[in-house]
Amino acid sequence: MPPREHPCAILGCKAQHKSLHRLPANEQQRLKWLSFIFEDKVPENVPKLLYVCANHFSVDCLENAGQYNSGFASKLFLKTGSVPTIRDPVSLQATTSTKSNKVDVACQTEPFHTSLHSVGTQLSFRTLQAKRRSTSVQTTISSFELTVPSASSTAFMTSTPLKPSLKRPRLELEEEEEEEEAEETLTESKIIAQDSDVTFDPAEECTSATEPTDLSIQECPVHNIAKFIVYETCLMELFSDCPVCQRRCDVKSQRLGTFLSVQQVCPHCEFVRKWNSQPIIGSTPAGNLHLSAAVYLSGASFFVVEKVFAAMKLHIFKYNSFRRHARLCIEPAIVHKWRNWQSEMLEQLSRRENVIVGGDMRADSPGHSAKYGSYTMMDLATNTVVDLQLVQSNEVGGSYHMEKEGLKRSLDLLDARGVRLECIITDRHPQIQKYLRDRNVTQFYDVWHIEKGISKKLDKICQIKGCEKLRKWLRSIKNHIYWTAASSTTGPERVAKWTSILNHVQDKHVHEDPNFPACLHPQRISRDKNKWLSAATMPFYKLEKVLANKRILKDVAKLSPHHQTSTVEAFHSVILRFAPKNVVFPFLGMLCRLYLAALHYNENAGRPQATSATGKPIYKLAFPKAKKGEYRVREVKTQQTFGYVEELLDLIFNQVFVDPSPYVDEVLGIHIPPALSSACDLPEMEEAISSRVTRFNQ
């Protein structure tokens, strides 16, 4: 359809009709049009684009004049072979002057209201075109082989399917059939799609509404269009009566997942209308793919969502369809998004000097029977996850060796991208210590891991009879180890400050070690003289045995003086939202959920503190279980953002679904280890059932 600024080519046409028709492609018919336009004086150079408005055609040439005059069509369509014959358009204007600009249709009204409402619907005027059927586009709903217009079919409130991409393989376009039969009512199970007219204009598809409609939403992508929950009875009210003859119609509906197709056929005047609840991309309903992507990208469980839908009596597709969407579109998009972001981050790190990273492994289950181990490498200066490595236990001979393998892969990647490390901060895993020492990488230990181990030992000592006095020093000892790490620059200085606590608890504040000769606190008289320990007592002996242990002193010398891995632990808590430990995922599914957790953390880790309406910072009180009744004051952060989800949806709908081949190839390049059960002998099912024995059936 040409833009509205194109004038009618007939000289002297002042009352131009909004329905403009372009010169036909047929040469003989084109000459007839030109002869009429130029009054048998056709020039040699004819403009390529000429339009004639509908006022210059007789009523016999108009295919839908009745529907147009009744207000059920937004524009006029020409019959094949029509030629303009009316130079004076007065007669046609009088014929079409009764066109109404408002349509009263059925709506989702409450049954208790007796008054009628004039409202808009989710139907486009295109569904009310001429009453004709095209046998060339009849098909069943299961395959969704629908003829679609080439115009912009993502227009708001239109049921027109989207044009399929020529790049996308036909096999991948086929939507998996549901196990249950499609729901039908009243008539046959065929869906009849109407032909698209060459003069079809999506911009003119509109209905009357009680509220103004923003026409700019027509350019909105499919996945950004608002969606609503519609009850079946309210929806079917719109199709019960024929809009032309006002008599009852035959209505049938068919469903595929969240997609609903309704066909209205009038047996009296042969009026036909087809309506789809959502656009069709290629051969896949957009709502089905969007729901699968929303469930996956938000870290939700399909089975939980399925239960919610079942409780609300909402229709949803099967798990196999969800897995197909994930395999072909969602997981390739996640892998592509993460790798592009990671490549940019590593490029920035390669231009920096003295990069300090923190690393730690998270097992998918407690104990030594974990299947997966995910190693996280984080840039502690920017609090950003830069690498994730997923290791399966059968790759390294057991779950105990997964952390070392994950660290090795991460360091190899950083070296390959030219990242120069100043040091790495980890826990005290023995294999990690030896590997980093052999690789000549400077390693520091996270303070919290050492403090946690020491506190557990001291808590047990305080439970021994006669050692209760030691409990008064627990908080001071915890604070002392953090102060030791933060205020020291060398290993011997850290050890000297750490061992000074053994003199301090005896009320001795001058020490023999020259690296820390005296306590830095001011001299003051204590109110509780009973808190001091004596060297020859059981509490002091137990305390000295823990704090002066050779391994503890060795580890204290390597305490991190600047950054800690607490942010890595915070990221591990985020992973629980995307990959709970009580849910089993395949290797690729686990890897993609780790990538989603990293994208979410990197986007929201630097959120500022929330403030009140007056600009006052907001805090909250928390009572952690581990603190045993003690409270903590914590900052309240601003709301989380999910920009990565919007970017992934754009990638899925605009690129991956259109041509998934390069994205799928990227996923196929990932090494996926064999399943743990692949090393087991698989018995025959009949044999396994026959040998099944329980305690109650020997």
From TrEMBL:
One of its GO terms (molecular function) is DNA binding. Residues 1-87 form the THAP-type domain. Residues 155-187 are annotated as: Disordered. Keywords: DNA-binding, Metal-binding, Zinc, Zinc-finger. Transmembrane segments: none annotated. It comes from the Eukaryota. Residues 173-186 have a biased composition (Acidic residues). Pfam families: THAP. The keyword Transmembrane does not apply. PANTHER family: SI:CH211-108C17.2-RELATED-RELATED, SI:CH211-211K8.4-RELATED. This is THAP-type domain-containing protein. It comes from Danio rerio.
